[in-house]
Amino acid sequence: MKIIKEVEEASIKRSVDSGTEEQRKAVKKIIASVREKGDDSLKEYTEKFDGVTIEELKVSEVEIADAFAEMDTGMIKVIQEAADNIRDFHEKQKQSSWFTTRPDGTMLGQKLTPLDSVGVYVPGGTAAYPSSVLMNVLPAKVAGVGRITMVSPPGKDGKLSAGVLVAAKIAGVEEIYKVGGAQAVAALAYGTESISPVDKITGPGNIFVALAKREVFGDVDIDMIAGPSEIVVLADGSQHADEIAADLLSQAEHDALASAVLVTTSEELAEEVSREVERQLSTLPREEIARRSINDYGAIYVTEDLEKAVDLVNNLAPEHLEILTADPFETMAGIRHAGAIFLGRYSSEPVGDYFAGPNHVLPTNGTARFSSPLNVDEFMKKSSIISYSEKALRENGDKIAAFARLEGLEAHARAVEIRFNKRG
């Protein structure tokens, strides 16, 4: 890995892939086709893009039972335990409606209401991600969303992976459909004969899925357009180079565009980690992908002191941040921008990806400066409650009318004054 000792400014921002003009046109065409032809369009695109003919889009209970029979019972227990951890963590995020009163009879408040319906997109085909199912579905379930619909592209056998189906069942999904790509996003947004439209779409996907989510946003809500994965490790000189290298590579193997960065106060550790990364790369099954990531977007920054290291991390605003210092909790106090923060050598990033409980759907590409992980609030709506008494309006009516006239809105002013200026 390249070692940078004179750090003036650093960034892991990469240009967001907005697709080619040809890709954007293709997505718009797919969406229009699904809106016009419904299920027939979904089946046609599934055959065209996934190479499989699907007669029945909805996953049957028999298919789910087969998935449980196929999967090792020990692995089912692991998924169940992970789901329990994720559910427990998100339960603590729940907020309640609240109301406050004043002596003049005014009552103000906020009413929280879960979304009626959510669609969850889960990547499939050659890759399957049961963890994505849990992380997207369980916060919605905790929020109280009434209907959760899951879509995922089928494999060449016309089925979804056993892991995805087991995770969906454990998470409580009742509607699962074998369809992916932009066509699945269109179906969730606008509905077909089989799939009812939803209010929000969450979950990762390829460039066509991302473009489709952008296209339907406004008709429905979406979670985010996530970029490639990122990890920053902040370490002092007392840490283990082999462990840091392994953690960096855990993200580099995701994608050639992934970014793995070490920020350290120790030149010696920087050199050791650089050697360890090279040594471990040679034994990785996904060596080619990880090596491209390390070469193009990996870096080791050496700073004069821990304070400058923390400033650099805040500038990077990483998706994942591991703090490996003598007192990680004290160091964390200075961190302002990070999607998820992992403290100490036993909190390796994959712990959060799969099992600990916090959500692994995180802001990328520097957006941790203003964004948060996927959470229960993403699946709730907030309504403001206003109940004015006669006394309160009499006391404040002139002020409200004056403010309205300041903005040139006479009807607003009269709407208040008419309640006290009636004739006859």
Automatic annotation (TrEMBL):
Annotated residues for binding of Zn(2+): 251, 254, 353, 412
One biological process term in Gene Ontology:
L-histidine biosynthetic process
Question: Would the keyword Glycoprotein turn up in this protein's UniProt record?
Answer: no
Copy out the cofactor comment.
Binds 1 zinc ion per subunit.
Known InterPro entries for this protein?
A: Ald_DH/histidinol_DH, Histidinol_DH_CS, Histidinol_DH_monofunct, Hstdl_DH
- Give the residues the record marks as binding NAD(+): 121, 183, 206
**What EC number(s) are associated with this protein in UniProt?**
1.1.1.23
Query: Where does the record place the catalytic residues?
Result: 319 (proton acceptor), 320 (proton acceptor)
**Catalysed reactions listed for this entry:** L-histidinol + 2 NAD(+) + H2O = L-histidine + 2 NADH + 3 H(+)
**What does the entry list as the binding residues for substrate?**
229, 251, 254, 320, 353, 407, 412
What's in the keyword line of the UniProt record? Amino-acid biosynthesis, Histidine biosynthesis, Metal-binding, NAD, Oxidoreductase, Zinc
Choose one Gene Ontology CC annotation of this protein and give it. cytosol
* Molecular functions per Gene Ontology: histidinol dehydrogenase activity; NAD binding; zinc ion binding
For the keyword Signal, the answer is no
Kindly list the residue ranges recorded as spanning the membrane: none
Pathways involved: Amino-acid biosynthesis; L-histidine biosynthesis; L-histidine from 5-phospho-alpha-D-ribose 1-diphosphate: step 9/9
Q: Which cofactors? A: Zn(2+)
The role this protein plays is:
Catalyzes the sequential NAD-dependent oxidations of L-histidinol to L-histidinaldehyde and then to L-histidine.
Membership in a protein family: Belongs to the histidinol dehydrogenase family.
Matches recorded under NCBIfam families: hisD
Record's protein name: Histidinol dehydrogenase
What high-level taxonomic lineage is stated for the organism? Answer: Bacteria, Bacillati, Bacillota, Bacilli, Bacillales
